[in-house]
Amino acid sequence: MSATPSHRVSTGERINDHEPAGRLQHELSSRGIRLTRQRRVVLQVMESAARHMDAGEILDRAQKIDADITRVTVYRTLDLLKGFGLIDELDLLHLRGHRHYYESHGPRDHIHVACIRCGRVREIESELYEDLKKQISKDCDIEISIARTEIGGVCGDCKAKAVSSD
Amino acid sequence: MSATPSHRVSTGERINDHEPAGRLQHELSSRGIRLTRQRRVVLQVMESAARHMDAGEILDRAQKIDADITRVTVYRTLDLLKGFGLIDELDLLHLRGHRHYYESHGPRDHIHVACIRCGRVREIESELYEDLKKQISKDCDIEISIARTEIGGVCGDCKAKAVSSD
DNA sequence: ATAGATGCAAATATTTTGCCGCCAG
DNA sequence: CTGGCGGCAAAATATTTGCATCTAT
């Protein structure tokens, strides 16, 4: 790792520190969206997520809290949140099949950096990334509302392991 | 559009000008991969693509050239090409459902900029993007082999239309 | 000749929809 | 109260796999 990283780097499992508890609930009710028991549970799962989850994992976690929740409700709630731009849908470079992953994120975009060997995903924020988006916005005359960047490669740990096992 | 864009911008339908004819065939055979009749057709479709296609569209085009090609062969060939990093798999922000799109690309990465209203996708290259990747590579100690960036927003044309229809 | 491809059909996986009874506001 | 919501079952999509046969090298 570089001694003076020019990016804020977060490591390993996703830690949802930027998410004030109840943020999603608040966003929805302030838009006049009905808050059902099931939705509360899915929102709770999304907010407390320690990592990116696909629809099946979200269902599993939701059912641990409230066994009655169905797969269909999860899909419908995810669609709802996507529609309001409150969560992002990622594919993480299709490293593990064609699943889609969901995450609730704070106000600032982050880049997903994944190791194609071990699958670990890190998230980073970058001033340079903000500059790039501004540049694109100007050059393409577009008002950016979604930005997604996924980077894949072999991480340092995996490179080291590859060498030591030769 | 800005008078002096700092990015190379390509507009509208994808024009595959960076792809020397037969590039994919050459890449495969130089790796000792068997070139079957079916694979040649799929490669031809990928190389001559005027835009991003999902698996179904690739199948349709391939069958227009050779009616015997099956869906399964298309999937298997796409997997093969992905495995060698010769094509990219995109979801274009899931703007049109959960389809996956495939594209063969030249040596340089480009950014996909999509209008969330009209769905038009532009591709741009950017020096800033190259800088960003270098920075990430250093900060995260990773050797980057895939980079994908998708940007969404309302394009100038659609903004203009929205105003004029008010 | 033969390792590796294809085709077929069926299995999986994933996501969406119609309809009806139910509940949050 | 009542219009939006959730559950159920089934449909629609999308992708993968086993196996027998064929073919590029």
Determine the most extensive contact between two protein chains: A-B, 47 and 48 residues
CATH class of the largest domain in chain A: Mainly Alpha
- Helix count of chain A? 6
Largest sheet of chain A: 4 strands, mixed
Q: Percentage of helical residues of chain A?
A: 25-40%
Uncertain stretches of chain A = 1-6, 10-14
N/C terminus separation of chain A: 23 Å
Summing up helix and strand content along with how strands pair, one would put the structural category of chain A as alpha+beta
Strand content of chain A: 15-25%
Write up what this structure looks like.
Two copies of one chain form a homodimer. With 166 residues, chain A is α+β, with helices and mostly antiparallel strands. Chain A has two domains: 1-18 and 107-166, Ferric-uptake regulator, C-terminal dimerisarion domain (Dna Ligase, domain 1, 2-Layer Sandwich), CATH 3.30.1490.190; 19-105, Arc Repressor Mutant, subunit A (Orthogonal Bundle), CATH 1.10.10. Helix content of chain A is 39%, strand content 22%. The first copy, chain A, has six helices and seven strands, in the order βααβααββββαβα. In chain A, strands 1-6-5-7 form a four-stranded mixed beta sheet. In chain A, strand 5 and strand 6 form a beta hairpin. The radius of gyration of chain A is 18 Å and the shape is globular. Chains A and B meet through strand 5, helix 5 and strand 7 of A and strand 5, strand 6, helix 5 and strand 7 of B. Strand 7 (142-155) of chain A pairs antiparallel with strand 7 (142-155) of chain B, so a sheet runs across the interface. The structure holds a DNA duplex (25 and 25 nucleotides).
